[in-house]
Write a structure and sequence with these properties.
Elements: H1 6-12, H2 18-26, E1 30-32, E2 35-36, E3 50-53, E4 56-59, E5 65-70, E6 74-75, E7 84-85, H3 93-96, E8 100-102, E9 110-116, H4 119-126, E10 134-140, H5 146-154, E11 169-174, E12 177-182, H6 189-196, E13 201-209, E14 212-213, E15 223-225, H7 228-233
Parallel strand pairs: 6-7, 9-13
Antiparallel strand pairs: 1-2, 1-3, 3-4, 5-9, 5-15, 8-9, 10-12, 10-13, 11-12, 13-14
Bound molecules: uracil.
């Protein structure tokens, strides 16, 4: 990261404008290396790995790559209409860092949701051409048949889509439980595909994107930073 003043860094970390960031320093709320910082214009050289703001340890990371375990009942939108927003599950300062969802999950779908403020990364992961498989676990209303599986792997027509969409992989876990992997990220795609094959999705959750899986230890509503290896695996 190039040379930065403390107020600029705070602003990049989502603490508002430079003026607002300067005010945090003037109020004595910013601590660097165990000492209260006094000069908002101090140049950070070398760049610290962390700083404390209002008693909270903040990693000095300006590029956000996050995974969230999206619970059911949250909207992937900055302007939610009927439910809470997934952004409310993240630190408020991430909003000041222009964080966005990398693809969306519908309100009723839970599971792995990626978020970032890096346009190129977002595009890379969302692009069907890049071929990252999105794997879902679906609980169905009716028994899943071999005929339905064949139809989904062959491709089904969805309303308002020019081309048929195919499931890339399907695994049957139980009579009414499957995993299904798709390459695109069309509106309600898995639900619509199962409906087109004559079944109905009752519960849906995303398990993985490419080879990045939702860890069992990440509870619904919890988030963490992606590791460098995960970012690279996703093409970032
Ligand atoms: N397919 C759906 O139906 N919903 C999602 O949220 C994602 C894929």
């Amino acid at each position: 990261m190039p040379e930065l003043t403390l107020e600029r860094l705070l602003s990049k970390l989502g603490y508002g404008s430079r003026k607002e960031s300067r005010a945090l320093v003037r109020m004595g709320l910013v601590t660097l290396g165990g000492k209260i910082a006094e000069d908002p214009f101090m140049i950070l050289e070398p760049m610290p790995k962390t700083l404390q703001v209002n008693g909270e340890e903040i990693p000095v990371v300006t590029e956000l790559y996050i995974m969230l375990h999206k619970p059911q009942g949250y909207e992937c939108s900055h302007q939610p209409r009927h439910h809470d927003s997934v952004f409310g599950l993240l630190p408020e300062r991430f909003l000041g860092m222009e964080i966005q969802c990398v693809g969306r999950l519908d309100v009723e779908t839970s599971g792995l949701l990626l978020l970032s403020n890096q346009g190129k990364f977002i595009h890379q992961v969302e692009s069907p051409k890049k071929g990252l498989l999105k794997k879902y676990r679906a609980e169905l209303a009716r028994e899943f048949t071999e005929a339905q599986k064949a139809q989904l792997l062959e491709g089904v027509a969805l309303r308002n889509e020019k081309k048929k969409v195919q499931a890339k992989e399907i695994e049957t876990l139980g009579k009414k439980i499957i995993t299904i992997s798709i390459q695109e990220g069309l509106y309600h795609q898995v639900r619509r595909m199962l409906a087109a094959a004559g079944n109905h999705v009752e519960q849906l959750s995303r398990l993985s994107i490419g080879n990045v899986a939702l860890p069992e230890t990440l509870a619904p509503g919890a988030w963490r930073y992606l590791t460098q290896e995960e970012i690279e695996n996703l093409g970032g």
